[in-house]
Each structure stands twice: as C-alpha cells, then as structure tokens.
User: Fold these one by one.
Assistant:
Number 1:
Amino acid sequence: MNDSLSIPHLILNASLVVQLVMLLLIVGSVASWAVIFQRGFVLRRARKAHRAFEDRFWSGVDLNELYRVTPAEQDVEGAEHLFRAGFREFNRLLPKTRSSQAILDGVQRAMRVAWSREEERLNQHLTFLATVASASPYIGLFGTVWGIMGSFMGLSMAQQATLSTVAPWIAEALIATAMGLFAAIPAVIFYNRLSALSSRLLGQYEDFAEEFHSILHRNLQGRDERDAA
Amino acid sequence: MARAKKRVGYGLPVILAVGLHVGVLAITLLRWPASDPEPTSSAIVKATLVRSETATDKAQRAQQAGASAAEASKPQEAEPTQQQAEQAAARAEAEKQRQAAEAARQEKAAAEKQHAAELQALNQAREQAQEAARRRAEEARQAARQKAEAEKQRQAEEAARKKAEAEKQRQAEEAARQRAEAEKQRQAEEAARKKAEAEKQRQAEEAARQKAEAEKKQRQAEEAARKKAEAQAKRAAEAARQASEQALAQSIAGEEQAIANARQAREAANGFKNLVKQAVEQAWIIPSSAGDQQRAVVRITLLPTGELVDASIRESSGNAAFDRSVLQAVERAAPFREMQSLPTAAQRQFREFNLDFNPEDVR
C-alpha cells in the first residue's frame, strides 16, 4: 500500500493527459531554472563590470584614452557601451557642427539607443520566467482536475466507493498541482529578484549617462567660450 | 579584458537546472524508501508483537512446567536421578581425564613449538613471525576445539536432563492414569452399590404398594355399592339445584365482567386524557404574561381517528393571550392518534371532553 503510493509510482500510473501535463511542467521548470541561472550569471557579471568601469571612469583618466582602450562596439556591455556610443557620436559630430546643442542632442540620442539595447539585453528571457510563474499553477490545476474527473468516472463504475478506492487517484491527480507549484514558486521569486536587479542596473546606467552627458556639456561650454573669444 | 567571458551561454545554466531537478528527484526517491519502512515496520512490529507475546508465553509456560516437574520429581524419584548423576559423574570423570590428557598433549606440543620457535628465532625473524602466526592459529583452533568439546558436554548434560524430565513426566502421567483408574473403579463400585440399594428399595415399595392396592380395591368395591344407591337418590335433587346455581353464577360472572370492562375503559380513558394533556403541555408556549393562578378549561372535540374537530375555551382565564396560547397548543398537538387504540365505549366518551390548563402544572 505504501509502496504503491510513492511519488514516482503515482506519476507512472497516472493517465496520459496527466502525464503530459506533468511532462510539460517538468520541462517548464527545467527551462525556468536554466533561465534563472543564466540571468543570474549575466546580471552578476554586468554588476561587476559596471562597478569596474565606473571606478575606471572616475579615476581621472583621459576620456580619449579610455575610449581607445575600450573594446569594439559589439563586445562592450553596460555603461561602457553607453560611454562608447556617446563618445563616438561626440567625436563624429564635433568637427561637423558648431552648435553645441546639436552635438549634445546627438550624444543623448546615441546613448538612449545604447541604453535601450542594454535594457533589452538585461531583460531578455525574463518574460519567460513570468510566463512560467503565472501559467504553471493553472497547468497543474488542469492536470489535477482532469485526474480527479477520471477518478470520479472510475468511481461511478465501482460497486463500492470507499476512500481507499478514490484516494490513490486523487493523490496522483494532486501531484500535478504540486508540480505546477514547484515550477511556479521559484519562477515567481526569481522573476521578482532578477527584474529588480536589472532595473537597478538600468537605473545606474541611466545615472551614468546623465553624468557623462554633463561632462560633455561642460567641455562644450568651454569650447563655445573659446570660440567666442 | 577577457571578452569571451562576457557572453554567458545557456550550456552551464541548463546543466545546472537539470542537475537541480535530478537532485530534487533523488531526494524524493531517497526520502520515500526511508519513510516507507516506518509504517511497514510498524505493521510488522504489530504482527510480531502478538507472536512474540505468545512465544514468550509458551516459553515461560515451558520453563515453569520444566521447573515444576523438576521440583516435583526430585524428592519422589531419587533413583533415576541418582543413576543419571552417577552416569554423568562417570562421564565427567572420563571427560576430565581426557581433558587432562589433552592439556598435557597441548602443553607438550606448545613446548615443542616454543622450542622450534626459539631455534627459528635464531635463524630468521621473518620465519619466526610466520611461525608465531601459525601457532596462534593452532592455539585458536585448539581453543575452538575445547570450546566445541565443552559445548558437546553441555549438550550431553542437557540431553540427560531432558531425558530425566521426560521420564519423570511419563511416570507422573502413569501415576495419574493409575489414580484415574482407581477412581473409576471406585465409582463403578459405588454405582453398583447404589443400584443394588435402589433395587431393594424399589422392591420394598412395590410390595407395599401392591398390598395397599389390594386393600383399596376391596374398600372401593364396598364403597361403590353404597354410592350407587346414594347417587341415584341424590342425582334427582342435584339436577334441580344445579340448574338454579348455574343461572346465578352466570349472572354474577356477567356482572363482574361488565365491572372489569368499565374499569378498564376508565383507566384507558384516564390514560388517554393524561396523554392528551401531556402532548398539549409539551406543545404549549406559555406567554410571559401568564400568572400561576390563571387557569383555562378547554373543550376539545375529536373524531374517532383522533383528529381535532374543534377546540374552544370553556372557562376563560381572563387573559386573552393565555387562552389563545392554550388553543394554539391544542392545535399543534393534534391529532391524538392514541384515540384509535381506545375501546369504543371510551372513544364515545372522548368525542368531547374538557381539559384544564394551569401553568403551575407545567412549570
């Protein structure tokens, strides 16, 4: 009796629909955990990179020097990416126009594009986590309802309806709900955590962009005065 | 700047995720067998508990029986035990001798071995170690042999003891059987004696009875002759008297029955009245305004089936709410099916009757 009520035994004895539901939930759970790990690595790395870059940026190094040592456009990430995009735009616009406002507009636009790319990169696949978190309880519930439906259909055939005839079916049906929750709970928790991390990083990028913008603005102010003089 | 490091692929995360799930699955798989045995083992324990109880019982009983048998037989039958003791002593003696010889032999062998070991120790340390090991093995073997012999001896003693017990038991059984036979014989004699006595008595009674019968017969014959004459004279007078008496008795009986019927009916009627009153009082919700002194008499009209035709206040209590509550209670309590089981005379009586209600009776 106890042997027949172990979880693997119940899973193997479930009906096809319930088994499919369970398989779907297992796949969803594995995928969501893969996303959790991958996002976790990405975000941790991005945070570290951002801290390192900020240290370098505020260490008083010459911006041209910094621009030269940063890698090519495709390989940079985070605030570095913003810096590179903005500085390149600044350097390109500087010889072409005399209007500092036009230069600053161009820089800001370039940095906004870079920022939205970063946002996309950081939030990649997080929606998948949200989907798993919200959908898998329902999927599991569906499996449970289906299993209990089957058990009651079988019960109508049975001569004597005792608790012990219904109990294994209901137990195996309830496993589907348990698995749905098993998939959903980590997905919810980590979705919240990871999206909070990424939004904090994006806020930091934004701050950096503003600061960088103000630095460029200061430089241009100096140039305007020189031109005027 | 390790640029390759910046791209985080999905390989490692997938492996980690799969590993996590396998781990969780393994935990569930491991948990279940671990928690499984508990219920099953408890069930087994339950089963074995019963068995162990009986087993210990049996063992205790066997031990007690053995002890009691040994105690009982010790003073009674000294002969076989003495004999056995002698035998055992002889065997022990032989055993002791043999052991002594064995010990001597062992000592000799040990001495020899020691000697050889000493010689070898002079030659090579390695060989000595081997030799020592071999000797140890030999000693162990000897010890084992000794132990085995001791065991054998113990078993032999055990067997002897068992045999003695069996013998004792057999003798006890024999004695019991003999005693039982003697008892049986005694009972048989007793029975024979009783039978003989009974026979004698019966014969004596028979004789007395026969004598008495003969006397009675003679007397009866005389009596019959006298009676016949008397009877003829009497019968004529008797016939006339009986006729008048029977008529009287019949009339008396009829009267008595009528009285009894009436009493029964009255009792039933009283019972019915009480029943109705109780039923109504149970259904009665006494208004709070009712005082204890108030009293209402209700006239109830019933069908023979017990259904209520009408209930009306015969004597009002002076409190309209009280009167109404009594009427409602009667209506609630109706029908009174007990009416059907009443005798018809009583039924007629209760087509209409009065009941008086007083809150004091209920409270």
Number 2:
Amino acid sequence: MRTLTKTWLAALAAAILLSTPTMSAEAGDLKDASEIVNRTNTAQYYAANDGRALVRMKIVDSKGRSQRRQFAVLRRDKADGGDQNYLVVFDQPADVRGTAFLVKKHANKDDDRWLYMPGLDLVKRIAASDERTSFVGTHFFYEDISGRQPEEDKHQLLETTDTEYVVKSTPKSSSGVEFAHYTLYVNKKTFLPSKIDYVNAQGKVYRRIETVKVDTVKGHPTITRLKVSDLDSGGYTLSDVSNVEYDMGIPDDIFVEGSLRNPPQKWLR
Amino acid sequence: MKPTLCTTKQCRGGVPSLRCLAVAALVFAALAFASGAFAQDEHGAGVPAAEEGAGESDAGPSTDAEGEAPAEPRAEETLEAEAEGPVDAADSAETPEELAGDVEPTEDTGGDEDWGEFDDWDEEDGGGDSGTKAWGFQLGGFVEGLIAPRVVRSSASASEFAAAEARFRLNLDATHEIASARFRGDVYADGVDSRVWFDIRDASIFVRGGNWFSMRFGRQVLTWGTGDFLFLNDLFPKDFNSFFIGRADEYLKAPSNSVQTTFMMKKVGLDLIWTPIFEPDRFIDGERLSFFNPLIGEIQGDRSPFSPIQPLFPDKRLRNGTIHGRLYGSAGPVELAAYGYVGFWPQPIALTGLPDPTNPPQLTYARLGVYGASVRAPLGGGLINVEGAFYDSFDDRVGTDPTTPNSQFRGLAGYERELFPKFQMGLQYYLEYTLKYDELQSNSLWPAYEQHEFRHLLTLRLTQFLVMDNLELSVFTFFSPDELDTYIRPRVTYKVIEPLAIVVGANLMFGRYDYTFFGQLKENTNVYARLRYSF
C-alpha cells in the first residue's frame, strides 16, 4: 500500500483531463512565451471551477508487462492558477481498492496531503516529496499530474506554426530536475499541450508526453488520452479519462478527512 | 484436525455472543447486498459483473476449511493467464517513434489496440464508473499463504512455527449515495494450532445525513492518532499476535462491534464511538507467542499449563461498554485533535485478587479513562507530530494497589520526511511516565519486574521504493535505551506481476532482560514469507 504513498498526485491527473477553453479567441498570435505557458497551465489544470473524472492508466514496462491503475477524482479550484483541492479514490489494482488521497494543492508552498489506508482505517498525513518521481508506479511524475509552476522555468518561444506554439523551457535551478530543458508544443486554439519533449544534458530526447485525444466537455477542451514514454527503456504509460463532468457545484466541505473514510458517492458517481 | 469456527481467539474464553453478533452482522450485510441488487434490477440498469459475486457472498464466508482449497488452484490459473499477457502486450506495443509524429489533438488515434483495451475495462472489473446506477457493487479479496519459522531456540514454545497459514479474504461493498454496506471476512487454516478460524473484520452499514452527520454501525476496524505503530489515544483493539508473526500490517488492528457517529461543523469534526460490549486486545497469551509472566517469574509459552491465559472479562452490561471520542480540526496546515476514552485497559494487566495458594487470582481488565491531544504540522519539508495522553487508572489513583495498574502519562514526538527521492525516514520518541511510582514499588508483588518510572522508546522507519514502486525495502526499529531491548522489522515487498505480491521479512526481538516489553518476546524471533494473490 505504501507504493501509493505518492498517489495523491493522481488527483492531479484529474487536472490533466480538466482543461480550459477560455482562450479560443483568435486575436493574433501571442509573442510572450511566459504568457503562453501560463495559459497552458490554466487550460490544462484549472478548467471550470470544479470537476470529476474517472482515470484509468495502463503501465507497460520495457519487458512488455502491464499493470493497471484506476481511480476517480474530484477537484475544486479556489482560484485559477492558485490553490486547489483534490479527492482521489482508488479502485484498481485490487489490493489498493478503497485507498484514497486528499490533496490541498498550494500555489506558493508545499501541498498538504493525506492518504487513507482502508485495511487499518488509517488516515496518514504525507510529507512533501520529490515531484519528479514516479506517480503511483506509472511513468508519469507527480509534477506531470499536478502541474509544474510556470515560474520555475525560463520560457523561450522557438516557433509559431499554423496550429502550434513551440516553447523551450529551461529550469532556473537544476536541482531536483533531471532534464536540461523541455520543449512544449501548444495548440493555439485550446492552449493544451500536444506534446512535451524532455531533453537531457547530452541533447537527447529521453522522455515524451503526448496528447492522444481531446474531447470538449461543457465547452472545455479536455485531454482524455495521454501517453508518456520513457524513450530509454521503452516503457510507457497510457492514461484514459472518462466520465468527465464540470461545474457540478462540488462543495468545499467534502474535501475533509471524513471523505477519505467514506467517499462522497453523490459526487463520484 | 477438527475445524473450529470462531470469530476471535476470545471465543474459547467463553464469549459465544461474539459469534452470534458476527453471524447476525454477516446476514445483515448479505441482506443489504441482496436488497441492493434488487433495487438495481428495478432500475433496469442491467446485471453488473459484480452481482454474481454478491450471490456468492452468502455462501463464501460461512464455508469452512473447504473454502480454502478451491481458491488456491484458481490463483494459479489466473497466474498463468497473466503470464501470457506480456507476450501480447509486447506484440502490440507501439514504439515511441510510431507516435513521434504530430498528433492532431482533436482526433482519436483509434487504431491502437492498447487504447481499445480501455473500452471494455469496466465490464471486466465492475469498475467504479457506475454512471447513473443507484447502487454500486464491488467484490474483491485475496488468497494468501504465510509461513514464519522461529529462528531461535525456545524452551517455552513447542511449535517450530510462529505462523503457518493459508488465508482467504472476501471483500464485498454495496454503495449508494447516502448509504453503504461493507463486508470484510477472513477464513484461514492455521497450521500452528491446527484450527480453522473465521474472522469477520468488517460487517457494517454506513449512513450519511447531509454533509454534517454520518454514522457507521456494525463490526468495524477503527484507528486514530498520530503515531506510527505507537498508539496513545487510540484505545481500539489491537492484535499483537498478528503484529509479531509477519501478517500484513492491517492485522495489527482488530475489529470491534461499534457504533460510530461523526458530526462535521465547518472545519471541526466530532467522532463519538460506542462499543457496547468491551472488546479487548488480542493479546499475547502464551499459546502462539511466549511472553514473560511475572506471576510465575518466567517466559511462558505453549508448553506451560497456564497457556493460554484466560482472563476474567467484565460483565456484559451496558455500563461496561467503552466510549471513544475525538474532536478535531485544523488551523491552516496545522491539525489539532483532542481525545477522550472511558472503558478498560485494553490488556489484562490487573489481578482479581492477591496471590493465594488456595484461590489463585485471575488476570483481568481494570477500568481506565484516557484524555489526550495531538498536533501535526508540516516542518522543514517533512511532518512533525506531538501527542500526549493521560491514562487515568480509576481504581488505583493512589497507586498503592498491586493488583491494579497505576496511572500514566504517555507522550510522543515524531518527525518524518523524504531524504532522497523515494527514500523516506521516520523518527519517533515515546515516553511512558508511571505516576505514584514510589507507592507502586513499595507495594508491588514483583518490584524487580516493574517497568521503570520513565520508559523511553525510540523508533526509526526507513523505506525505499525501487523498480517503479514495485519493490519496497523497509525496516522499522523499536529501541528502548532504558529497558535495553529492541525489535527490528525488516521487510522486502515485491509486486511480481499485478495481482501477485511476495513479502519476505523478519521479526527480530532482543533484550538483555526477560521481563521487558520486547525482551520477553525474544524467543519468538522469526523470519517469514508471505505470498498474496489479490482479486
């Protein structure tokens, strides 16, 4: 069960599926790379004010062995680009069914996270952890799920095509990151990333995240299929998002300890 | 081997009503399940995959040892099926290059077999995607084998094994928007005592009344407090036998038949739990694990005519029930809680009378009240927790009665953080301060064996995750600098393939003296291997 210690970020996976629409006005191309990245962050992680989704992941390792993860996510934003609450309830694999995470994501400080282990009826608070390590045993990192703060990188607009912006992002501090830079391909209409290439110090792309499918739900373009590949090992993880709903009116008071023990079925189903 | 069905060890101690309660709860849960299934049909929502399981639930938990046998081969079959899986996956696995081209984000690359698999995922597994259905059902569980040979010579215990068992667990859940029913039941064949045990860990109904009130009643496992394997304000029953023989961590907590009510007001919550019939710990009674018995002045194991210890239980009257309360809330990232308990010491550490050759005393449970508080907050990239509890031994507040434990203050301070990626460390300092110690010493029946006025305990937890979180290395160590004893729990957990996990570990107890908390357990030192197949 402790494998899932970091599973809370799953919550954030929800964010991935919940993407934003607001910027579809074609008022000419943007020139400011930081502006593009900020809009991408909002589009990808802050769609609507609240949302629900069912996330299923298939993990395939370099030897072709596969595993599954399945969880439901509830999210409520306090402010776009700011604090968010997440509740994540695991359904698969079988040995972690009923395990749940409560995440209070903070824009400017460490998140508060709790893990519920049903066998022990234990609500365990979880310390802050490295954001660039495997999220619940998948090829996603926590940071892929919860979003990387745009201010952590310097952004440079490399190219503007008919459909995309291409932005190179270089970390301001190399501590805690394994990449030298990454290249972000952003759809000009939806501001959702279509691809992210992570480049190491040798200039080689070793890791890639690709958007495979986008659906529009209640006017919000939403990434519903995503693939992350470890190009060195050949392993990859597929993420499929379904049952998406936005602006359900999820109240703030369900993001409490009691909801870990007894998940609020009214909002999850 | 004569199979004996029993809900708990205490059955043999003459508490048949526990069994009745458990069976009643089971029937109740099964009925709830059946009525849920009926409601679902009414809604015309079709037959979910889990419903067949719901039918089995009636028979499953009540089967005896034979229930065990069919489960094992099934595990193997599925294992083979799984093993074939990777071959297919490898065939269909796309290379990263195939996907390297620009993907139009508004189109589905539908031809990919990998993705197609998601479409029928729900049907296979019953899933959490219950859509508009009124009731959701889930069936699950595991089959597990555990073997734990003793590795030190023991004169007190005859058995060469601390554990040798095959276990079948059934989990059933029926959930509705405002109510749910839950069942967790184990059947296990125990090679150490040559019995078949039937242990219901949960058979409860949950009801929600808006966002401010909820209630769970029935048999359930309960936990609270901030300690890691140390419980100050958590007086819910523990199973210390399970803890020391390599069973999964969850078995440290034993169930009780209780009513839990929760009130939520803004950021403050109140839990009140009533256990009408006192449920003690499943303590170490000498039969499976040996312990130091101060009455006889030596380590007592299954060779002893006094094993297992059979304490005198409080009368089953309502006034002998236990009440647990917790008031909790948070101020920013800081969590605060206050706790209260009225009931009995959870272990039989009192005597019914002074030793008398003609009328030997029995061990029993003394009355106890516990009042405490805890704080938990982030600090320096980790978490700090502080907890205190006052153990008020009602019947011997002056501390002069040698048959009744003295009051104590218990304190805990802990800190945990991730030192390196996927490497976590947790440190705890724990203190037991026994009040009226002079009175205790001058009246004690065995002053040499009494624990010190201040008992200090340090714990260290180290955990490392490797291989995409599929391999976990961990060690948890207890060490008491004043009792000079230690307990080390090294463990390796490997998830071989998805449903199959193997755990190898050890329970290593050392101590300079035979009568200290961990030192008395040293002859039980064991290594273990556990194989679990989850479904």
Number 3:
Amino acid sequence: MLFLFLLSPFIFLGCHKEDDYLPGLSGNMVGYIYTFDEFGNLLVDHSHVKVTAIGMDQTYSRHSDVTGRFELEEVPTGTFELHFEKEGFGVLKQFGVQHLGGKPTILLNNRSEEEAYFLYEMPASIIDHLKIVNDSMSCEFSFAIIPNPSTSFLLKVFFSSSDHFTRHNAEYIEDVRIWQRDGNYWGKFYFNETPSSPGETVYYKACRFTIPGVIRPPYQNWNVYGVDTYFDYELNETIYPNLGDESEQYSFTFPE
Amino acid sequence: MNLNSILLLFRNRAILLTGIVLWTLTSSCEELPEPLFTNSVIHGNIDLYDSYDEALENISITAQGPYEKKKGLTDSNGDYQITGLGNGTYELEFSKEGYGTKYQYGIQLFGNDTVRVRDELYKRMTGLKLPTLYEIHTQDTYSWLSEKKIVITTSRSQGEIPARVFMSEDDGVSYNNFQWTSNARTLKRNGFDKLMLIVDNLPFDSGKKVYLRVYICNPDEHWGYFNKYTGMLTFSTLEKDEHSSLMSFTMP
C-alpha cells in the first residue's frame, strides 16, 4: 500500500515529456512493396521485406506480409529515411519521407503515378566477352539460374576515355536491353551522344540490373507503377539498388 | 465484525482508491497536444454516378484527424468545404443514403494547407435479392461457351441481376479474399426459360479448381476503388450479406 502511494508522484512526473517535439503527434505508416526476381519477374510472395523508418532518435521496423503491405506503428511526427531490405535483394532507400501523425500516413499517396515500392533480387551472373561491333553489343553470361529464353534483361554500360575508371566517374552511361538469339546474348546499341572522337580508344564495363518500372499484378486490370531507384546526395548519382557485379574492363576504337 | 475484518475492508477500499487515483493521473498523459495550426481546409466535389436528375446536395463528408471529427455537406453542385482543421493526417468518409460509402486515406495537412479531394458515389442495390444459383457450366457441359467463360444457371426468369463474382483458387473466397473479380452479365438464351449469369475472360489456368461467391453489387462500379489503407480492391456498393453459397468449377 505504502509502495503504491510512494509510486504515484513518480507516475505523475512521468507525464512530463522532455522531448516536446512539434507538433507532438504519432501515427502509423502504411505502404506496399512488391518483390521481383533478378530478371524483373514479379514474385508471388512479397513477405519478409524489412522496412525501417529512421528518424532523429529512433528507428521503427516491420516486415511486409505476403501481399507486400506493411504498417509501421506509432511513429512520431517527423521526416524519415526509409530502408527496404531482404536477403538476396538490393537495398532500396527513400529520403525525406514526411509523416505528420494522426491517421495513418499512406506512403506514396501524393505521387501522381507510383503506388508502391519495387525491390529486385540481386543479379547472380558473370558477364564475359563484352563486345561492341557497330551498333550491336554481344556478350556471354555465366548465370546462377538460366533465364527463360524469352526473357530479356538490361545492362548498364559505363564508358570512359580513361583506362582507370570506376562506374562512379564514368563519362558516359548507356542502358542496353539484352535478348537471347540463337543461343547468344545480344542487344541493339546506340550512342545517344558521341562519347569520344573517331579513332580514340574507349574503355567500357557493364553491370546487370532490373527495372520493370510498371507491372500488372496477376488477375488485375490495372497497372502499378513503382519506385525502385533513389538519388544519393553524397554520391550525387541515382542508385539502382540491384546493380550487379561489374564485368571486366573492355575497350574499342571509336569508329571513324 | 471483528477487528481483522474491519482492517481487511479498510485495506481493500484503500487499494481501490489508490488504483483510481493512479488511473486518473496516468490517463492524463494520453491527452493530445494542441494543434500547431487550425486553419487548414479540405474541399472538393462529390459526384453521384449516373444520377443526372438527382441533386448533389447533402452528401456527407466526415474528416477524421488527430484532434477531432469534422463534418461537412455538399451544396447543390456537389461542392464541399471543411475549414478550421488542425495539422496532421486525415481520413475522409463520403456517404449519402442509398449510395455506397467511400473512404480516402492519408490526407496530410500542415500550416495553411488547402487540399482538394474529389470522389464519386454509386447507388446501392439495396433490397435486391440474389436469385438461387444452381449450377456452373463450362465448355465441358455447354459446348457453345469458349474456354474462358462460364455460365451460372439461376432461378430468376426476367430482369437484370446486378451480380459481381469473386473468384479464387482458395475455398475461403469472399469479397475480401479473392484473386480475381468481375461483373457477371445477365444472359437470356433461346431455348432456356431462366436467366443465366455469364462471366468471361477468366484468367485461371486450364485444369485449376476455382471457387467463387456471387454478391449483389452495382454493375456501374466496374473497377471499384483501391483502398489505400487495407490494400484491397473495394466495391462501395457491394451488399456484403447478400451473396451466394460457395460454388466451384474446374477450368476446362
């Protein structure tokens, strides 16, 4: 009894909040994340993606369910960084997510098109014998999982006039869609800008990546657009979370 | 009453009293803070689908936010305005008697925000009863059907049947657990004296066992709306209690 009476002033004092953040509300955050294999095929089970909201002082985490829905609970008002992680998948980040509190924040609610986040499996392949002849790029792959012959995929090709370059300081970047044809991998290739002068040696390397951008979920009549990249302000570049390992460096002489 | 009984009674009352005091003190912690701003506005327009002759006034809008619930009504043009809202995230409910109620979520207000939200309501099929549904026929039993179509024989002889079909490979299929949904068209075919429901463009693979339930729902609400909170495709005019029993068929 005496203990309860002694405890009560401390409970009362506990009501005083030291961190009186403005405007001092909290609420849930709801969103949707869809998962894809390394070739951009929509998976059936979107569960176990760990979604983390990183705030000033605390982080809040939840896992997505099989439909891709997640709900972070009782998150205080503020601006958050979101991380989406699943083993074997690229990590997607989002910055400056505003959460006012009260009723649930619906993530991406104010975007004109995108309704969900997309997370892709990391590509597991080695790119060999990358070759550019005229307007064609051909290459060989060592795949962990052999893709269906009708599957196409993307290469991000990095170019530089320097033979010691990384993809972060490439002078020119081009995306090439690669198809299988007669057992070979091949893609039509155009330079949108001229990266070099005729006769000069151009160095290049490539990574695989995935970017469906839009999907039509099974049995549904509407398209879902997704957010699958982010801009890294420190690196000052757009990040493709499932960019695979770099190929060796190759070179060619820019045609006269 | 001996001394021990009196002491016990006193102790029990004291414990009760202490509990009440503690509850009062702790519950005061749950009070919401004062809103930083109280001059935000949600406004917009609500339309009634296919009701050209019906006045658009008195459609009810309820804004539920962190601090309070505020209501508004549309004028004769369907326009509404709810003022004096505090900062925070709001949910809106649009309703009118005889129409399906719809919801919008995640409306964020801060400072002097003015946010426009529009919507459209569809008439409910209140009072309509689903006829008895007898059998599902596929191409296997009605050769004139294509492989992606089924017909369901019914007990009714005339009129349209405003039916929506929910299908799944799961036998727990319902309006909130389905893989595919579609309006069912009412069909009267020569040689049959009863109406049939026809469903086409079925997306299921050949040989799959498919379960279905049929509900009363306004067929004008073709696509429903995506409920951004639940993540479910939702039909505001669906009569949840007016549905068929569980039926099944195998895709030909």
